[in-house]
Specification:
alpha/beta, seven-stranded mixed sheet
């Protein structure tokens, strides 16, 4: 029988530790497929964050490095500058990137560091129990906003793509989602393009992926995907925010 679908070479054959319905696994696969298709497995280095994906090095079968909380872009900068021929990416959640690591990602983009950031936005601090994150929506209930996020008290959610897209050093900035098959296909295309732009030497690249967290949202997996589509996508519009005309 002809095999038409299989595990990517860059993805290890191991059990997952993620919760049922978590979309980290989907994004892991998309990153691995992009690396395989670009044939850069043997020269790719990934940087794992602190958060639910802290064990990313258990899944990606390429060289991986663990960074302190929020420091993945700084670590990736050092790796890329020392080994400029490598393809370097970070894989970060919203707490890691948009809270404690805000300074690192902003200045990496401003400097035009030739790295790729895969940014998982599930609107919550997931690993530590479901607290409000910088990306938590107005009215969204968390353990630290039990009555819903209040704009006057907590401020507005941070829009990373809009913030980084205006920086001169940013070469490719895109926001995608994985709440249905059509958007998974678009997400794969954006991730692959981000790697291609990095390899062409244009500058900093980031793909924000709107993702579901059924456990901390208190929803069933299918309900979480609908909630993402109905609530996150309107506030975080999908699309390319900045892209070079040619690679």
């Amino acid at each position: 029988m002809q095999k038409v679908f299989t595990r990517p070479r860059t993805l290890k054959d191991v059990p997952t530790h993620y919760c049922p319905g978590c979309t980290h696994g989907i994004v892991h696969r998309l990153v691995a497929e992009a690396i395989d298709e670009l044939n850069v497995f043997d020269r790719t280095i990934g940087v794992a964050p602190v958060g639910c994906s802290v064990f990313a090095y258990n899944y990606f079968d390429c060289d991986m490095y663990e960074a302190s909380h929020g420091r993945a872009p700084a670590v990736a900068t050092g790796i890329k500058r020392v080994l400029p021929d490598r393809v370097v990416f970070t894989y970060q959640g919203d707490g890691d990137l948009a809270a404690i690591g805000t300074g690192e990602v902003v200045h990496a983009a401003a400097r035009g560091e030739k790295i790729t950031v895969i940014f998982i936005n599930n609107a919550i601090y997931a690993m530590t129990g479901g607290q409000m994150a910088p990306t938590t929506l107005i009215g969204q209930k968390t353990t630290t906003t039990p009555y819903g996020r209040d704009r006057e008290l907590n401020g507005s959610p941070v829009k990373i793509c809009e913030m980084l897209g205006v920086l001169d050093g940013a070469a490719y900035i895109a926001r995608v989602s994985v709440h249905n098959p059509a958007n998974v296909v678009k997400a794969k295309k954006a991730i692959k393009r981000a790697f291609e732009v990095q390899m062409a030497g244009h500058g900093f690249t980031l793909v924000e992926v709107l993702s579901a967290c059924p456990t901390n949202w208190g929803l069933a997996p299918d309900e979480a995907l609908r909630w993402l589509a109905d609530n996150m996508v309107p506030y975080y519009p999908l699309g390319e925010y900045k892209a070079p005309e040619e690679i």
